[in-house]
Amino acid sequence: MSNVLPDLPYAYDALEPFISKQIMELHHKKHHQTYVNALNAAEQAYAKASTPKERIALQAALKFNGGGHINHSLFWKNLAPSSSEGKGTGGTLRDGPLKEAIIKAFGSLDNLKKEFNATTASIQGSGWGWLGYNPQTKILEITTTANQDPLLTHVPIIGVDIWEHAFYLQYLNVKVDYLNAIWNVINFDEAEKRFTEAQSGAKL
Predict the structure, then answer these.
(1) For residue range 29-59, what is the model confidence (pLDDT) as tens digits?
(2) CA angle 5-31-132, nearest 5°?
(3) 42 within 8 A of 58, measured Cβ to Cβ
């Protein structure tokens, strides 16, 4: 079965003023669609490959485009219209198990934001910043992945795209402004759902 571009759970302009309609349209319709198309092509080529050498040659395309599809599918759900703009629940962390885990690991939500932003802004080139659940230690940790590599060491709770296509049209080269702004549209309800599933051992 071919991979397909998922619909967004909100309108393209729903995350404004923090993420513009123009960025969302290009990011979803163009960039994510490109990963889906290339992943499908790589999977079809892999199915037809007749030698180990041919299959090995396709690994990079499968990893890059597969990771891009996985990461972006999670990213869209990690965002929600902002509560500060009266549009939704984005940016609001309610009392519950996720808030308790954040306070346990970082002391406060503000501390998490500062540490997450500093770690993610320091990525050389393109990549992703993650708040992940470590299944060994059973605590939340901040980590990063390069390019479109999916997060495999932790269960992804929140992922933030730091590729320039995610922010450049609005924030130019100022990654920190983008990272500060995106917390206003983080879907903590979705993050808590992923966190409770991770605690229960569900595969994500």
Answers:
(1) 999 999 999 999 999 999 999 999 999 999 9
(2) 75
(3) yes
